[in-house]
Model the fold of this input.
Amino acid sequence: MRITKHTDYAIRSLMYLSLKDEEDLASIREISEFFKISKNHLMKVINRLSQDGYITSSRGKHGGIKLAKSPNAIELGELLRKLELDGPMVDCETGPCQFMGNCTLKCRLDAAKSAFANTFDGITIADLAADRSALQALIH
Done:
């Protein structure tokens, strides 16, 4: 399976934010420059993470973003289900399919999708950023 850039950027952004001191805010520009990714695309990712309650943001001269939850409370399995795996892998309802009603592909793909997400249950953002001092050296 392959995750989208949106999900990849979300995970990396959460890791980045987990390395900041609790009171420090990061900017979207700061994160986009660090990872060399599109600021516009990252804004969409950050908006989604904010809507889902993973980050908080504040506007203004001294505004920015930070984690809304502890890195230990952000599980990858849940994050993947929200960002990546919320729909069917194949859309059997649109377009004519001669196998409709007699095919098990959709069920098998859904089982694979579930197994993929289950692999990440119990793994947190804190786990991904476990070598905190080495990673912090990279962002400073």
